[in-house]
């Protein structure tokens, strides 16, 4: 069941206070809650109101937004429906009538003024230039007229009882119909505070729309049709049944204790429910309509009444709820326990005779998810002439700086204090330019024009695009580049960040002591270490993802011991991954044993398992340990620091090593994958956890292949995201239910393994007498010598690059920055048997930059057996191409990170199995040594170069075989033995995205 924004019930106690009037809500009184995301835990808290106070702070659209609504008394349901109906009224002007006297007109005006919906609108002058118009998405300038509409279904609106959204006057006029506002501008709260000319302007622009009676009825609600009449019949039946049910419920409340209610459920084969109110609801349901049978899907769970029907509360397995939904469950005659049917019991029980009846239920239609804020403009509007531009005022000018600042703001711009490369222009005069002050010098250095004060008058009323030309033509200095290159042409209005989302993606930097990291949130990480007993570290990171409940939680717990001994603490932290949600607590303990006892108790409470147990069993709804190997981040941070010891490597090789071991790049890569770097620093998951994650993806792949039901995907997705914590912010974790998603997650695991290799090397102790760059170079066990750019060898490789760039891969042009001759330790010896094989070619292989430490140190690898088969067109092997851009696409570069690495390897292909479409190869036929995916376009074989050792370099320009019937555009070569590959060159490539290949 989806999380509903509101909840209604009769107060269980008299302790809760109303969020509106601050008075207590009496026990048994009807109360309504807005369900608000907590800042303290990964879940929602009810903010309770008296039913009369609630509608002053919240605006539900329909009773379907309110959980438990169908379980309250029918008369209370009608009151709530009536209140919601008032909230959704269309604001229409009173229809004119000649019979109306002054008193009638006055009453009509008062009706409009007191309308609760009208209070959600307002008009005023903009107090700043920060707010964006909902209609056109442009900023509303200071002192402009703006119109407010308060909304309650956004994150801010729900939490604070309304969020004002602002509109330009003309934009509001364009979309008033969407808001049901047909009154004139003079009806808006705040209208009387405007100046006389502006009141006249508003009345002219926003006139009342008189609508005939027929149209008014359509806007307020269509006339009843046959479907509505049928619903009326259902409503009448629900009313009768509700009164009958509450007659039973009231009697049970009067006669039964909690334990007696439990006896009734037990007698009828039902499990228990929480709280006396829950017991009363379920017992009343049983005694009114008959006992509900067990769920026929899982055979264990109970079917519980909810909106639209009955839902099973059972579990499919440790990762998934059953969730079976039944509109009309099977029922049996209800039984009364013998303890309630004796002579001394009330006649309600002694005379009770069960009848079976279907409960009348209104169908529930799940509403599509509403986006928090739309980024698409509803109204086309010309932007202000200085919109999004920054200016710097220099010197004493003909206008005061405050006046200039105000004028620039009203035209859409901003005044900055310092000169930088995004400044549109300097506002000054000729005298200041001749003085060449520091700011003018900086402007000249950055090629930023200087314009006079008159420039601001010249751009008034003009278009933003014309402003750029005005900056150039009105410049009073001798320098200046094109201002369009300094100013963003289009601002993208991003969805505002959630209240609960962290402003920056933080990476935990752990200080490791004695093999474990003390959480820095504890505040004692500099004076304490994780307690170890019998070689067991008392620390655990727990994770729980539940897509159906939108949970993505963590729980951390540690026993800490003072470095100097004698003091012990228990630290714990909990919350939602990647957000501000959560808390932490540090408790002192008199001894290690008492702290450990508390730790073990918490671990069992949160996981259902004993701490240290070798056979951990996941329990439904409980946490699962994330096995993390912490390393000292401070060591890795020193890699790129300048060393006093000179490197013995050539400068290009030094730069290459710095690239390969760039910690920031590793972190950035992990964040691109939405991985949580606080719970899982740089992907240091244990091998077992990675193995389990691969297996989960393989199981998901099997579900896709056999077309399984959606609930099975949810369970395995829960498992994957629990094993590999992801940062989704406040968004619900996605269900992994397509081959494309499985492939994406498999690539994440592949990259995690490669990054782990690189990060492990960064942690290794090295000789302090050796430059760190040289030390890391040695760790790779690979000789890499830069090739002279003027050599024939470099020219051959460069020609290979330029000739084999595919026509369809035109998003970038490739530029060879450096080529390194590669000799991996032991690889030539391993490759030697295949050196005798015919058909050896020099082929391309591309991969993400963060993978190359693993590739160079361990060689190109074949996916493990537990990895899913998705994404491997021709089976699990090592893939190569003869078209450079085919492999370059796998480097995963972009315009911001435009440098990638590629390999050229000698590949012993021998006789190839030739295929023209995807076919998963488990094993090659006898006599075949590789697979070749036959592309229709390939390098011209006539232009291939054969080296002296017999290796073919397919460096010809592309030609197309129009007769070949193939689904592949370009050739692919796959070998299934790592020994068939001998890496020979590493290329450092610049991906020029601003020079698209034509």
Automatic annotation (TrEMBL):
Residues annotated as coiled-coil are 224-255
Q: Which family does it belong to?
A: Belongs to the ARTD/PARP family.
Domain named BRCT: residues: 381-456
Task: Give the species this sequence originates from.
Answer: Clunio marinus
Q: Where is the PARP alpha-helical domain?
A: 646-763
Question: By its UniProt entry, which CDD domains does this protein fall under?
Answer: BRCT_PARP1, parp_like, WGR_PARP1_like
Output the Gene Ontology cellular-component terms: nucleolus
InterPro entries to which the protein is assigned, alphabetical: ARTD/PARP, BRCT_dom, BRCT_dom_sf, PADR1_C_dom_sf, PARP, PARP1-like_PADR1_N, PARP1-like_PADR1_Zn_ribbon, Poly(ADP-ribose)pol_cat_dom
A Pfam family reported for this protein in Swiss-Prot or TrEMBL = PARP_reg
Q: What class of enzyme is it?
A: transferase
Which GO molecular function annotations are given, in alphabetical order? DNA binding; NAD binding; NAD+ poly-ADP-ribosyltransferase activity; NAD+-protein-aspartate ADP-ribosyltransferase activity; NAD+-protein-glutamate ADP-ribosyltransferase activity; nucleotidyltransferase activity; zinc ion binding
Q: What is the lineage of its organism?
A: Eukaryota, Metazoa, Ecdysozoa, Arthropoda, Hexapoda
Q: Where do the WGR domain residues begin and end?
A: 527-623
UniProt protein name = Poly [ADP-ribose] polymerase
- Key words of the record: ADP-ribosylation, Coiled coil, DNA-binding, Glycosyltransferase, Metal-binding, NAD, Nucleotidyltransferase, Nucleus, Repeat, Transferase, Zinc, Zinc-finger
Location comes to: Nucleus
According to its UniProt record, where is this protein mainly located? Answer: nucleus
- Reactions catalysed according to its record: L-glutamyl-[protein] + NAD(+) = 5-O-(ADP-D-ribosyl)-L-glutamyl-[protein] + nicotinamide; NAD(+) + (ADP-D-ribosyl)n-acceptor = nicotinamide + (ADP-D-ribosyl)n+1-acceptor + H(+); L-aspartyl-[protein] + NAD(+) = 4-O-(ADP-D-ribosyl)-L-aspartyl-[protein] + nicotinamide
**Where in the numbering of this chain does the PARP catalytic domain appear?**
771-998
